[in-house]
From TrEMBL:
Substrate binds at residue 348. The keyword Disulfide bond does not apply. This is Alanine-glyoxylate transaminase / serine-glyoxylate transaminase / serine-pyruvate transaminase. GO terms for biological process: glycine biosynthetic process, by transamination of glyoxylate. Keywords: Aminotransferase, Pyridoxal phosphate, Pyruvate, Transferase. SUPFAM superfamilies: PLP-dependent transferases. Gene3D superfamilies: Aspartate Aminotransferase, domain 1, Type I PLP-dependent aspartate aminotransferase-like (Major domain). Signal peptide: none annotated. Coiled coil: none annotated. It comes from the Bacteria. The modification N6-(pyridoxal phosphate)lysine is found at residue 200. GO terms for molecular function: alanine-glyoxylate transaminase activity; L-serine-pyruvate transaminase activity.
Length: 398
């Protein structure tokens, strides 16, 4: 027993530019710190109703079954899979990064017969290859990741949705990193089930996972012959707690996390979605101009590049770990390392939610320049910042 005294944790000041969590506004933080009330208190139930309404607005859906699962984005993934899949059901999972791989693992654990359709990290799928795989495998559910945070690639959805439905399958979409950062159109794209997370572009700490299910998905869940493999994530019970009619106790909702999500959703809708997406794009373009001026290249083709997660190649001779350590230690800036086959080869710079700001872009570029030069680089003084500023001027004109 070496330690005898403990003090409440004091987190250091950080600029969060990694793959999540993203920065959290003062308003959301103070909502989290409000007094805890009961999970069946009428005032809390009112907050739950409003949260559902705001989630529908952000997901762009009329789906009744739209709520926040208690748990991080992975819990939302698991909730969608275990409720749609019964043991022996076929599920096609498109894997072009870590999160597609995780979805395949979750599906196999749920008892699905899983077929993985694979693409190298950083690439995206064509509707034609998914159509062919569905024609052959005839899956009940087809799962795909909209914004692959592990690689920085953005998967176009509308055409894929068409072939999934034409093949008699349901579409499950991972929107963890896309929701509230770039357009997500659940109804227009006819997505059957989708999940997200609070800690990416919603700019709330990790802890809740918004999910939404179409009528077709709900009908499939109602027609199940077996119980959902997970007690905690069983939507037939969770939805009774969220439903105004029953309000049946299932588990105690993480009360203060729900305050936080409610406040974060208010901020998203106050900004108005198209403006929020335009802000994310503007800051991405400025960051891109800046990192390219510092001599870095993107790891993903321009046509499918995610604006909220910039995967850039680490220049030859530069020490990955040393740069990230200096960014964090000297400047308080967190960026992400590469994952899977991209480990050691790329950095992942997130510009999500409140973290997506000109201030962060300019500070990051100035800090990166000094870290690269500390590694023997020869960045021209201020080149990144100048290019980013020029990009902001150009966006203001257009
Ligand atoms: C972060 C992320 C997840 C997992 O979310 P957690 O909050 O870490 O559980 C799943 N899918 C994608 C695309 C993500 O970016």
């Amino acid at each position: 027993m070496a330690e005898t005294h403990f003090a409440p944790f004091q987190p250091p000041s950080r600029i969060l530019l990694g793959p999540g969590p993203s920065g959290v506004s003062a308003r959301v933080l103070s909502a989290l710190a409000a007094p805890t009330i009961g999970h069946l208190d009428p005032q809390f139930l009112k907050l739950m109703d409003e949260t559902q309404q705001m989630l529908r607005a952000v997901f762009r859906t009329g789906n009744r079954l739209t709520l926040a699962v208690s748990g991080t984005g992975s819990a939302g993934m698991e909730a969608c899979v275990v409720n749609l899949i019964e043991p022996g059901d076929r599920m096609l999972v498109c894997v072009n990064g870590v999160f597609g791989g995780r979805m395949a693992d979750v599906a196999a654990r749920a008892g699905a017969v899983v077929r993985k359709l694979e693409r190298p990290f950083g690439e995206v799928f064509s509707a034609a290859e998914i159509e062919a795989a569905i024609a052959e495998f005839k899956p009940k559910v087809t799962g795909i990741v909209h914004a692959e945070t592990s690689t920085g690639a953005l998967q176009p959805v509308p055409e894929i949705s068409r072939v999934v439905h034409a093949g008699g399958s349901m579409l499950l979409l991972d929107c963890v990193t896309s929701l509230a950062g770039l357009p997500v159109e659940i109804d227009e794209w006819e997505v059957d089930a989708a999940y997200s997370g609070t800690q990416k572009c919603l700019s709330c700490p990790p802890g809740l996972s918004p999910v939404t299910f179409s009528d077709r998905a709900v009908a499939a869940m109602d027609a199940r012959k077996t119980k959902v493999a997970s007690w905690y994530l069983d939507m037939s019970m969770v939805r009774n707690y969220w439903s105004q009619q029953s309000r049946a106790y299932h588990h105690t909702a993480p009360i203060n996390m729900n305050y936080g999500l409610h406040a974060a959703l208010c901020e998203v809708l106050e900004e108005v979605l198209p403006k929020r997406f335009a802000r994310h794009l503007r800051n991405h373009l400025a960051l891109r101009a800046g990192v390219e001026a510092l001599g870095l290249e993107y790891a993903v083709a321009e046509a499918c590049r995610l604006p909220v997660l910039n995967a850039v190649k680490i220049p030859a001779g530069v020490n990955d770990q040393a740069v990230r350590a200096q960014l964090l230690g000297e400047y308080g800036i967190e960026i992400g390392a590469g994952l899977g086959p991209m480990a050691g080869k790329t950095w992942r710079v997130g510009l999500m939610g409140v973290s997506s700001s000109p201030t962060n872009v300019l500070v990051f570029l100035a800090a990166l320049e000094s870290c690269l030069n500390a590694q023997g680089g020869e960045c021209r003084a201020g080149a990144g910042v100048a290019a980013a500023n020029a990009s902001y001027v150009a966006s203001a004109k257009s």
